[in-house]
Amino acid sequence: MGELHLEIIVDRMKREFKVDANIGAPQVAYRETITRSAEIDYIHRKQTGGSGQFARVKIRFEPLPAGSGFVFENKVVGGNVPKEFVPGVEKGLRGACEKRHHRRLPAYRLQGPAV
């Protein structure tokens, strides 16, 4: 339910039941975390003229002990990925975690990219 639903219920409580409610920001009472290892193998292909773009990224997510935070390990095989790209991959993964968990990083290890 959204905030509009909450506002309607609060208004009804005040109007119909004469109950004065102490209202604050809605809070989510649960968190998610990774409980087992998982691997992603993604191939990016985009042909826009010329040589186009191609990339293969393998990422492994592993659970860590509670409170360990976010760990990123670069396991590039053969040096096929320029070193300038690795910080961008880490930043993207951190950003996705922060967006998903509202600035709370879960405890898990990310290993990638590997080509």
Short description:
This protein is of the alpha+beta class.
What does this structure look like?
By secondary structure, the chain is α+β, with helices and mostly antiparallel strands. The protein is 26% helix and 24% strand. It has 2 helices and 4 strands; from the N terminus they run αβββαβ. It has a 4-stranded mixed β-sheet, with helices on one face. A hairpin with a 6-residue loop joins strand 1 and strand 2. The longest helix is centred in the N-terminal third of the chain and has 15 residues. The two termini are 43 Å apart.
The overall strand count is 4
What structural category characterises the helix and strand content?
alpha+beta
What can be said about the biggest beta sheet? 4 strands, mixed
From the N-terminal CA to the C-terminal CA, the straight-line distance is 43 Å
Topology as a string of helices (H) and strands (E): HEEEHE
Described by the principal axes of the CA atoms, the overall outline is elongated
Radius of gyration: 22 Å
Low-confidence stretches: 102-110
The amount of helix comes to 25-40%
Largest beta sheet: what is the strand line-up? Answer: 1-2-4-3
Q: If you average the pLDDT, what whole number results?
A: 77
Q: DSSP helix count?
A: 2
Assess the beta-strand content as a share of residues: 15-25%
Which tags fit this structure?
2 helices, alpha+beta, 4-stranded mixed β-sheet, single chain, about 120 residues, about 25% helix
